[in-house]
Amino acid sequence: MKDIIKNLNKVFDSRMRLGIMSVLVVDDWVEFKHLKETLDASDGNLASHIKALEKNDYIEVRKRFVGKKPQTSYRVTALGKSAFSTHLKALEELLRGK
Fold it and tell me: What is the rounded average pLDDT of the residues 52-59?
């Protein structure tokens, strides 16, 4: 049982970070606005959680202009995908009692 707990990643303890990662592992390059609407988050709350994921190299940020409007998009990195997968497997094992 201790091994299962070791595989839980503290970065994903937050409900918001779980949500962000869940969206990003399904879709490639998701816009800030889409994440905000999907997760029903405020700008500041979403930005702080994104920053934490970016700091751990779990997501990549792309900033560009579409016409004259700035657009910020995110995608999960290979490291982030691996860390999230390990975390989810640990949660599943914990729920199964293995």
Answer: 98
Number of domains the chain is built from? 1
Which CATH number is 34's domain given?
A: 1.10.10.10
CB 74 within 8 Å of CB 33: no
Nearest to 83 by CA among 50, 51, 56, 48: 56
Model confidence at 10: pLDDT above 60: yes
Helix, strand, or coil (residue 40): coil
Q: Would you mind telling me the total number of residues written for the chain in this entry?
A: 98
**pTM surpassing 0.85?**
yes
Could you tell me which residues are beta bridge partners of residue 76? 59
| Residue 9, helix vs strand vs coil | coil
